[in-house]
């Protein structure tokens, strides 16, 4: 029986590239695996897939009765809706432990690094499996994306060493230039509906019984949002009501200035202000040095809700 390898809802490059890379590894060691996805491909991820000649994994939303290997999360809010009816056979992740539970023993590769693909590279090394050039390319790009080309505080020496090794395998002479090309794709927001932008990299979290949605848009210049910021603010307000969420946050992250403008709607804005030590003005606040949702945004907010 084949296992399905799948990342989180609203998949990012780490989830998609990780599902492809891990499935190849599993098949090479005699464990049949099929990469899948839980949502549409983002422009950045499509750029990566096109650059290295991959089709997007199959869109599959139901996994009841199937074997599933989870990539890049352990949160039930981010997993398939019927994950409780599936058998989770493994997890590769670099986030905090979520509330996903299993009824049987499973394989776990969890490390405090900047990207799940860094861990998958470790798995290739552990099993002694050679990485094809095209798979090395997408893994490298996923790490560059998650670590914001090594600027993120989540970046570790392991991430950097993996990118260097994968770039050599992939035949990429200047991986930082390729990383900037990826972020230029992310920065092309004009003409895209507000809802598509808000949901481009959006995750829900259960914070002490409160549903909190946090989205992030990483660009090379925040001025690209000047004409559409009001539309984004209106849309996160709608999203809060539609999902019966306590709060919705949207990070507009400038990777060059290394900080984020936080847009917020909440039942209690004071919790958010307390979490980040800021005073919101008209539902906005500047978070200097904040690039990582995983390390700099979720933990203090979770503590504030507790």
Automatic annotation (TrEMBL):
It is an enzyme of class 3 (hydrolase). This is inorganic diphosphatase. Its cofactor is Mn(2+). NCBIfam families: PRK05427.1. Gene3D superfamilies: DHHA2 domain, inorganic pyrophosphatase (n-terminal core). Residues 179-305 form the DHHA2 domain. GO terms for molecular function: inorganic diphosphate phosphatase activity. It catalyses: diphosphate + H2O = 2 phosphate + H(+). Keywords: Hydrolase, Manganese, Metal-binding. Its EC number is 3.6.1.1.
